[in-house]
Write a structure and sequence with these properties.
The protein is mainly α. The longest helix has 8 residues. 16% of the residues lie in helices and 0% in strands. The protein has a domain of 31 residues. The protein is rod-shaped, with a radius of gyration of 28 Å.
Length: 74
């Protein structure tokens, strides 16, 4: 089922409207729309944080070795 074929939200589907907590006079969904769920009010699902695999095998830069530092200051 695609998103365009999905049912549009309405005040009858809203947690606040179902529990008589909505104070807005308009009968259309608003910015605070939350789906009514048997578990109650749930926060919106967050995106998952995915670590990327390291592509480089060595660092782009590195600290100079002791010998290289001594040669710079000699």
């Amino acid at each position: 089922m695609s998103r365009s074929a999905a049912r549009k939200p309405s005040c009858e589907d809203c947690y606040f409207g179902r529990n008589l907590l909505c104070a807005l006079p308009e009968p259309q969904p608003c910015a605070t729309f939350r789906p009514n769920h048997p578990d109650g009010l749930r926060p919106p699902q967050q995106l998952r944080f995915v670590f990327r695999s390291e592509r480089r095998t060595r660092a782009v830069w590195a600290f100079p070795t002791a010998q290289e530092q001594a040669a710079l200051h000699a």
